[in-house]
Amino acid sequence: MIYNLRVASCELARFLRASSSLLAAFSWIVASVVSAAEPSNFRPPRNDADLAYWLRNMSWHRFTPEEMHEAMGLDVAEVKSALRRLGLETVPQPKHAPGAPLRVLPYPGGRHPRIGFLDGAIRPQRETKVSVFTPWDEASYVVVDVPEALWSHLGLTYLAHTHIPTIFDKQGTKLEPLEWDRSDSNGVLRIARRLPNGISFGAVVKPGADAVRMELTLTNGAQETLRDLRVQNCVMLKGAAGFTALTNANKLFQNPYVACRSEDGTKWIITAWAPCHRPWANPPVPCLHSDPKFPDCPPGQSRRLTGWLSFYKGTNIAAELERIDKTGWREAGN
Fold first, then answer.
1. Structural Rg of the chain based on CA atoms
2. What domain count does the chain have?
3. When you count CB atoms within 10 A of the terminal residue's CB, does the N or C end of the chain come out lower?
């Protein structure tokens, strides 16, 4: 009896080991198929000048060679070789001079801009994302996704990552990758996209000494009036030291303003969009939202939204929001 039990135990152990190996092999095959079906998310540099720009950009973001690999697709050895060859192994972090414009850079990708809720932002695309560095710490920055998402009465019309399928995903239509236009000598960044159904949208990000001013435009090239044009713009705090607590207890919501207080209570990050229809924040990310809404847009017409992002060092946030209001940022450019 004991002998039979031992034989049975050995047979069971062999079966479990074989099953485990089969399961591991099956899992590897499935992962390989999924990986092959999913297009790569890196952006290879076009030439040496482009390579040098992105290596410098990522160095200012304090990226590791492994993160640079994720952003560009070059293997780690190639990244290290390029850093040596281009003299970029040590890239001094630019200091923010008082009165100088805030430093704004295209976000390079490679490092996920969220801390959590990652399943809600798979394969984030860099063409809508910019980094705005804080004036008090040259290594800290927020990532602004503008726009992160655009809805219309047609459904989810654009999304800057993979999560919920857009109307074009459902049709099997893929959007081409884009890059920010960084040709402006004043550091203004621009991007424009025309969607397959004729709708176009564009973003402009303008760095200033007191704030970063933003614009979103939409043009209706479709055949029907566009309604319920809700926009989601996200300010992600992962890269800002002292602002990464996964809570809303450090947030202020005063439509259209949404602000986050630092751990020591002496600094604030502030964002706003006009007209704002939903001020909120998502603790697991963590991020700030002052989400606007375009007015209905008939065929052939355009609509425009204005946005604000600034940093405040002090404790009187009410007075600071009043000061910001007096700048007239909501009407700027109208």
1. 24
2. 1
3. N
* Contact assessment for residue 72 and residue 53, using Cβ atoms and an 8 Å cutoff: no
Q: Which amino acid is at 141?
A: Y
In a domain, 309, yes or no: yes
Query: Is 250 inside a domain boundary?
Result: yes
In a domain, 36, yes or no: no
Question: CA of 121: how far to CAs of 115, 124, 140, 213, in Å?
Answer: 11, 6, 22, 25
Is 128:191 a contact under the CB 8 Å cutoff? yes
* Count of helix runs (H) and strand runs (E) in the chain: 6, 14
Got the DSSP string for 86-136?
Answer: TT-SS-PPPP--TTSPPPEEE---SS-S-SS-GGGSBS--GGGEEEEE-SS
Residue type, 16: L
Burial 289-303 (b: 16+ CB within 10 A, else e): bbbbbbeebeeeeeb
Inside any domain, residue 322:
yes
Range of the domain at 104: 95-326
Residue 227 parent element (H or E)? none
Paired tokens of 300: 């052939």
Spatial distance between the Cα atoms of 157 and 19, rounded to a whole number of angstroms: 45
Residues 48, 42 contacting (CB under 8 angstroms): no
Residues in the chain: 334
Distance of CA 116 to the CA centre of its chain: 13
Please list the helix, strand and coil fractions of the chain in percent, rounded to the nearest 5, in that order: 25, 30, 40
For residue 143, what is the domain's CATH number? 2.70.98
Instruction: Write the pLDDT tens digit of every residue in 94-139.
Output: 888 989 999 999 999 999 999 999 999 999 999 999 999 999 999 9
